[in-house]
Amino acid sequence: MEVALFLNGVFEDVLQEIISSQNLKEVESFYLQPYRGSEILLLKVNNPSDSNPIQLFISTTKNLNNVCYTAKIIGWENKKNIPATRLEGINNFIKKYQPNEKEVYFEANGSECINLIKIKNLVELDDKFSVSYLTKVSDDKPLKRRTRAGNWSPVKIPPSYLFLEENILAEDLEKELEEELEKSKSLTSAERIERLSKVDKLPKRTKILSSGFQRNPDVIAEVILRANGNCEKCNKPAPFLRAKDNTPFLEIHHKIFLASGGEDTVENAIAVCPNCHRELHFGHR
Predict the structure, then answer these.
(1) Which of 10, 195, 224, 249 is deepest in the core (most CB within 10 A)?
(2) What separation in angstroms does the CA of 109 have from each of 11, 31, 35, 43?
(3) Can you give the pTM of this predicted structure?
(4) Domain count, the chain
């Protein structure tokens, strides 16, 4: 299992200063100084280096709930253990390439700061992604929404598709597939077979973006209760029971679609079986 580190709520100006100095290409590595008095055990134990880097994910103070930057951690030290001669050299580096940081500090805003992290390849993500995509190593659960800056967490490396440059809206992807399907239907079987022989058998990955509505759970609960286990369109019992709680599986359908301005109310909703639900969306009306 590959493990990474998530840093929560780093100041944007600190990161942008590093990127500006990074663009000069005079040096490759820079420093971060989290506000906490406890050691980052993941870094202490694994001893990151150029040949053994650890992936870093960063949210900012202004965007706590999204991963906004990534970098490679190539070094870590407890500031208390840095010899005075080395500390002077690091301070001179910081004054030149990270002047807003000024120096290695041991206290900030009333918090002890003992971790000195050395990073390289800092990148600001064009497509930020939710911190909930990061899974904690400690309990294998997604990170919760952040309410304030500070702290860190060892996390699992997230799926590679989060970093794909190409992305598409879910609605556009479905529309594009429908258009291409119509073109495919117009070909002969021989033409389709010839085309199939020339393409990769594995589909291309892309990041699919979608938008939706925050549904009212009280509406769902009331409509499911009203249906009493039967589809409110075909009047047949639900086709199967849910594995998690052994209740009849029915889906909520809005008679006037939410996307068309329909209300998320008990009156505008019915509980239906999956087959009827698909018919209501895609069948003849």
Answers:
(1) 10
(2) 13, 19, 8, 24
(3) 0.63
(4) 3
